[in-house]
């Protein structure tokens, strides 16, 4: 909503996943403590992003492009680039369900609802929308833009870490592919779902659910009809392009070479 | 006509979702069903969480 981008979330998810898998493999720490440690590690990486973006005043896209590469390097260093397989008793947790819904689906929905509530009903949420509409004006009317930027970066990192842990539980193993390209698919999903890439507009709840569903339905559908696996990315790319272009047309950024996103932090 | 465009603009993603689901359900009958839909929601959970965090900031 604030019109900025953090593209290091995929790498943060990977580091949190690697740390979680390594702790679980070592077997000396309880599951809940391993989850907490991995989330704290994700938030610590978010602090690095915040220090660069807010402290050094580096454009968010450029700053997180750098940390995206660095954090992935950190994860590869931790795991030697190899697989870290979870113990069998932990693997089973990835497919636990309450009624028809898996636990991770419930976690995702609770997070979504909480964020929607914060966005719609709190001063914090309205301030983020104001920053997304116009950062300079938001600053002039007294919104603490830097503090809000730091807060959202840390929340975003915590969510990325949670996603990394959930993904690891789903597949039962940490691999170097975890979180790879996740940031672009996530951005594309919300734009496809209706949130503007240029900030300030859109409903988080519906856009995240609709966009993510569209992407996975396309992927699952192509699998079911027996399409070439290499065609998935091609089709997804076309969908992303159409959604981005439609968003640019709708917001009047189509002729400005990316407009505000690339001009401001 | 203007009303049709307004509906398309406001519900574009929902229409795309429904059309995509129907097309794949016709092309592959095994695709249609509540269990497959629940599995799809299961798979997208991590991405939904990341997307929520990204769009907050």
Structural descriptors:
heterodimer, A: 265 residues, mainly alpha, two-stranded antiparallel sheet, two-stranded antiparallel ribbon, 12 helices, 4 strands, globular, disordered C terminus, B: 57 residues, 2 helices, flat
Question: What report would you give on this structure?
Answer:
The complex is a heterodimer of chains A (265) and B (57). By secondary structure, chain A is mainly α. Chain A has 12 helices and 4 strands; from the N terminus they run αααβαββααααβαααα. In chain A, the strands form 2 sheets. Chain A has a two-stranded antiparallel sheet. In chain A, helix 1 runs parallel beside helix 3, helix 2 packs antiparallel against helix 3 and helix 9 packs across helix 10. Chain A is globular, with a radius of gyration of 19 Å. Chain B is mainly alpha-helical. Helix content of chain B is 86%, strand content 0%. Chain B has 2 helices and no strands. Chain B is flat, with a radius of gyration of 15 Å. The termini of chain B are far apart. Classes of the chains: A mainly alpha (265), B mainly alpha (57).
